[in-house]
Amino acid sequence: MRRSKRGGFTIIELVFALVIIAIVGTVSADVIMRVYEQYVFSRDFERGQNDTRRTLDIIAARLQYRIKNSAVGRRPGAVPAADSILSLNHENIDTNYPILEWVGISYESQRATDADGRAGWSGAAYKTSTSGFHLARSNLTTAWATESEMIGTPLHACTSWTDGDSSDCSVFVFAGSDLRGDYFGDQNSSWGWSAGTDTYSYFRILPNAGVLDQNITLATYDAGGLWDNVPPSAKGTERLTNYYIARSAYALMIEKAAVTDESGDLVLYYDYRPWLGERYDGGRRAVMLRDVTNFLFKEQGSVVRLVLCVLPSEMVAGVADPAERRESQFCREKVVL
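^ that's the sequence the OP posted. Answer follows.
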């Protein structure tokens, strides 16, 4: 007697098949979810790394054109007058000095050239009198026009530090033999970082005979300053001296909505003049990067090391454990010569 062919699955077989499909589906969904989470993490991490690198590159480009010995770390006090200032290469510079400040060289106006190929300012000057200088291969008219275009407002030849145009005045700074632009040991007295402090590093630029071209006369800014306070390299019988022209100071710091927040915005302040008694928070403000946990800086020799740490909010969203959140933080370092 012939046995009939089997025509389908038994109920037990179907149950087993459904169970296996369910298990495979669950595992696959878990794998797919983990792969997607890893992709999102990698994407956000890469984006954060790129943003951090780009921000450090921008900072380095600006900091490269600093007057070397003007760079300081600031520790805010209860009131501005109680702020503490240390030079950037001071051994006590640490996280207690969270604000990086410096006076920037007006390199845009330096690079500007006129029809004769003369630079806005060359950086080399010959003495013509006690306080008169000839700026070789320079044309300050071109330099001033460039600065005016950059700030979007007319610039005027300065005649007095107390007139209405004083905020538009650029200043002359002796670079010195080591090109660092410093001849007083105290950072406050040299650069005016503390309000009310005499500043001897800056000199007002006055045009000779109304022609703002290559010939200038210099006068000190503050009432207590004397022409005799200029550095030795610009006095006596020496005829040639190096100089910088500056128009603005810069400040970088992390600003948090609350002191207890683990991250905040990295903010740049600019377009303020400490030689006029102006403080960083009186300048213009721009947010450079968000979700920043640490901004560290230190000068060693002639090199400034910058460290920027970021904790992107999208990468730690929903993560309650502080230790686990910190594991998502990443840092980048940049060296500025």
